[in-house]
Design goal:
- This protein has helices at 8-16, 23-30, 34-46, 64-76, 79-85, 98-105, 130-140, 173-182, 184-198; strands at 20-21, 50-53, 56-59, 94-96, 118-126, 149-157, 163-165, 168-170.
- The protein is elongated, with a radius of gyration of 20 Å.
- The chain is 44% helix and 17% strand.
- Strands 1-3-2 form a 3-stranded antiparallel beta sheet. A 3-stranded mixed beta sheet has the order 4-5-6.
- It folds into 2 domains: 3-74, Winged helix-like DNA-binding domain superfamily/Winged helix DNA-binding domain (Arc Repressor Mutant, subunit A); 78-198, no CATH class.
- α1 crosses α2 (23-30) and α8 (173-182) runs antiparallel to α9.
- It is an alpha+beta fold.
Amino acid sequence: MNIDAINPYVIRILISAREKDSISSISKRIGLSYGWTHKWVTELIKEGIFKERWKGVVLQKDNKTYKEILKFVENNISKASLYYSILPLFGIGYCFTKTDAVYFWTDGRYNIARYREFYPIFIKIKKDEYPIFLWYCRKLNLKIDAKKGIFYAPEIAENFKSVNKEGYEIEPLNETIAFMEKNIYNFEPALEIIEEMYGKKLGVNYREVKTL
């Protein structure tokens, strides 16, 4: 494939694309105008990665270039960044919850009990869209409920509320605070951060008294 045609838009299209898809659906999922999405999809059709069909395209999963680009993404983006950044491209109902909601609401200032060898990413997935989530995980070699490494720890729910924070869907702040209060011994420092950041009156006094 022409190296000039491999760019962030093409990569986002290939990550987001489903087996049978439409250009308008891909455009909405990746947040790119229809015109530009159409341009790059046309290039991918020329490369044999997509096949045109009535009002849409069919992903050619066995295409060599397609496999090489996905392998490039897997090998050149840090695992943690990959797991977080691609979720919005799936076009499904999700939100970060539990420890991850705390991490987002504290702007990354509080993270607990996770490290490279064991790093669950806590998310909620809408029940009716869970099969699509599983399909994307298989497509991109993403682990679910593993015993080691980085993996998704999904909670399946009929419905839930979320708020958009910097392009990601996050459990609402009040629900995150309730989770932290329920697990106070792990999250008392985070509650104090939340007090400072959002002007919440939570009655937290975690900081150690400084001694001379």
